[in-house]
Fold this sequence. Notes:
This protein is an alpha/beta fold. It has helices spanning 12-24, 40-49, 79-93, 112-124, 138-147, 168-175, 214-233, 238-247, 262-269, 278-287, 300-303, and strands at 29-31, 57-62, 64-66, 72-75, 98-103, 128-134, 150-156, 178-182, 253-255. The protein contains 11 helices and 9 strands.
Amino acid sequence: MGMSEFYGSSDEAESVATIRRALELGVNFLDTADMYGVGTNEELVGRAIAGRRDGIVLATKFGNVRGPKGEFLGVNGSPAYVRDACEASLRRLGVETIDLYYQHRVDPKVPIEETVGAMSDLVTAGKVRHLGLSEASAATIRRANDVHPIAALQTEYSLWTRDVESEILPTVRELGIGFVAYSPLGRGFLTGGFKTPDDIPVDDYRRNSPRFQGENFAKNIALVDVVSEIARANGATPSQIALAWLISRGNDIVPIPGTKRVRYLEENARAVDIVLDATALDSIESTFPFGVTAGTRYPEAGMAAVNR
């Protein structure tokens, strides 16, 4: 996502090099969406994987509708839109089949059975291999899975966003659905790279995120300090500790840390080699209980679209 929008400026050559370096390191799951850069991120991914499609698990999403100038036009889960969005994504990605196709946000105006029914037709047609949902409630996941097997749920999950543990994660585990954890580094906050709100670029959407503002920022920095201490004790970086913790939650948890640069990609990839001992895990659990993070994860409008 950040290669095309939201997280300040980007460099296409560096972005392509980052994707290709990921493939060299054995990172074979690439996750994009049609709304990132209003389609330009899918085009970027398509260029980066041209001639390298074999072995890649390619995921994209539909449902968050945007206009030509980037304006947000709402959520659309209608069957006609599902079909049209898939065709557009296939063109931009330059592929014949999408491995995992998510509904990016649930459309409250369209029964989930109708949306997933249309997605199922894409599987029958050979355009999509597996279906996914993003930020769906437990009840919606069950209804969707009754129509067609749901392979993965993508929802925010990290040290500072643990609400999925109460109902969502048990539900997907009961149903045998994989969990894709987005923003596993807390939109970069858990990396320790931000010391004050002024460290956030002026054109970065995180300036409007409640957790990055005012008193919330100061309270959340104290949490990151603990991660930094654990990282020093383990000869690692805060990012690697945050990812290692998620990986330790189970083999069905797949974190998808985003980055625009090769050096951060390589740093993140090394998290798979870190095994947190009982002392580190106890320290993390005591520091990051459910609800400890100050501020909601999105502004009010964004929160209205999650877990529904």
